[in-house]
């Protein structure tokens, strides 16, 4: 009868060795898979460096030719006012007037309409002289003395402030966001009795530029969030 004792011993030893290798492989794989995902935020407040200011006024009348002459004079007056205050001609755009024939309106009460034509005229200033424009907005009442009432309240013609220097501050903000992400990762590694390893993946989020608040649209808040995966080591 064949003696199976030696074969059994060899098989047992082989199973033990195999188990060691399998355990070692699983442990190594698990260690390679250990990581932490963190986000880093960077924010900065910057002054707007571009402004678009629409000056809007209305004209009413029944004679289009007379209205045309009136609008032409008013446009010249506004342009002259702006130039006197330091705005260059290249920064001023005179838009075509928007004419509404009130008697042609489908739902208007024609019997109670004193004027047939309602004309909206817009002169737009686009400039990087943000502080100067802000001062002029408070002084636009001076145009009343020259016979022009600048109107407001139309959402289509709100003054707009922009920040165009993003490329200038982008590298610094990415560096700050990355630093903040690393600090968060180091804290996590310390709390989990691990060491922080190399960056496995990094994702730069989109930059956003918003008004700091509703009362100061000429001050912008720039924001970016980066997402980084770090490996963890024992």
UniProtKB/TrEMBL annotation:
<dbReference type="InterPro" id="IPR052022">
    <property type="entry name" value="26kDa_periplasmic_antigen"/>
</dbReference>
<dbReference type="Pfam" id="PF04402">
    <property type="entry name" value="SIMPL"/>
</dbReference>
<feature type="transmembrane region" description="Helical">
    <location>
        <begin position="6"/>
        <end position="26"/>
    </location>
</feature>
<dbReference type="InterPro" id="IPR016907">
    <property type="entry name" value="UCP029033"/>
</dbReference>
<keyword id="KW-0812">Transmembrane</keyword>
<keyword id="KW-1133">Transmembrane helix</keyword>
<protein>
    <recommendedName>
        <fullName>SIMPL domain-containing protein</fullName>
    </recommendedName>
</protein>
<dbReference type="GO" id="GO:0006974">
    <property type="term" value="P:DNA damage response"/>
</dbReference>
<keyword id="KW-0472">Membrane</keyword>
<dbReference type="InterPro" id="IPR007497">
    <property type="entry name" value="SIMPL/DUF541"/>
</dbReference>
């Amino acid at each position: 009868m064949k003696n199976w004792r030696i074969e059994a011993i060899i098989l047992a030893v082989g199973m033990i060795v195999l188990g060691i290798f399998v355990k070692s492989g699983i442990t190594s794989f698990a260690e390679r898979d250990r990581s932490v995902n963190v986000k880093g935020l960077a924010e900065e407040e910057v002054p707007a460096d571009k402004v678009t200011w629409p000056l809007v006024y209305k004209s009413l009348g029944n004679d289009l030719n007379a209205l045309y002459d009136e609008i032409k004079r008013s446009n010249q007056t506004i342009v002259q006012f702006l130039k006197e205050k330091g705005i260059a001609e290249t920064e001023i755009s005179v838009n075509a007037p928007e004419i509404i024939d009130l008697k042609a309106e489908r739902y208007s009460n024609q019997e109670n309409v004193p004027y047939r034509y309602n004309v909206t005229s817009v002169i737009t200033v686009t400039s990087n002289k943000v502080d100067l424009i802000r001062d002029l907005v408070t002084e636009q009442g001076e145009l009343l003395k020259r016979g022009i009432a600048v109107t407001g309240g139309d959402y289509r013609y709100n003054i707009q402030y922009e920040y165009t220097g993003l490329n200038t501050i982008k590298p610094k903000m990415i560096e700050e966001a990355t630093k903040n992400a690393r600090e968060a990762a180091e804290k996590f590694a310390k709390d989990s009795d691990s060491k922080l390893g190399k960056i496995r993946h990094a994702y730069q989020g989109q930059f956003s530029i918003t008004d700091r608040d509703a009362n100061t649209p000429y001050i912008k808040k720039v924001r970016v969030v980066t997402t980084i995966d770090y490996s963890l080591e024992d």
